[in-house]
Amino acid sequence: MAPLVRRTWAPRGVTPQIAQRTRSRHKVSAIAALTLAPHRRRVGLYFHLLADANFTAPDVIQFLRHLRRQLQRPLVVVWDRLNAHRGDVVQHYLRRCSAVHLEFLPPYAPELNPVELLWGNLKGNPLANYAPADVADIHRVAHRALRRLRRRYPLLRAFLAGTPLPLFSSK
Predict the structure, then answer these.
(1) CA angle (18 as vertex; 13, 19 as ends), nearest 5
(2) At 93, which CATH number?
(3) With 154 labelled, which of 3, 46, 115, 169 sits at a CA distance of 20 to 30 A?
(4) With a threshold of 0.85, does the pTM exceed it?
C-alpha cells in the first residue's frame, strides 16, 4: 500500500515527506460503471469496492444485478476482457438476462475504456501522495473520493468523451 507519489507544493527549502508503513500486500479492488442515458444524456457513476479480495464472476454478476435494479432499463455493457467478465458463470447469467447486452472492447485497448480514465483520475488526484494506515483506511478514502466524483457530472462526461468510441459522444 505504498502511495502513488506525485509532484506537490511545499514551502521553499522544506522537502515534502510522506510517512508510510512498510510495504504490504493489502489492496482494495474496484469495479465501476459509467452510465449514459440514451435520450437525456445524463451521466452516472456506480461502483463497488472490495478490501483484500479480487472481483470474481459472482461479484461481477452481483454488480450487474445492482446496476439493473438502479437503472431499471435495458443495458448495453461495454467491457474490457477481464477474465471475470468472460467467465462461464457470467456468460450463463447474460444468456438468461435478456435486458443486458454485452459488447467487449478490443484486447489491450485501455485507451478505449472510459473507466480507465476514471481510475487514472482517482489515483492521480484524491489518492496521490496518500499513505494509508491500513486497508480499511484506503477503502474509506477511496469510497469517499468516488462518492464525491459521482456528483461531478462534467468530469464524468469528460471520461466518456475522452475515448475515441462514438458510443460515448458528449453531445
Answers:
(1) 125
(2) 3.30.420.10
(3) 3
(4) no
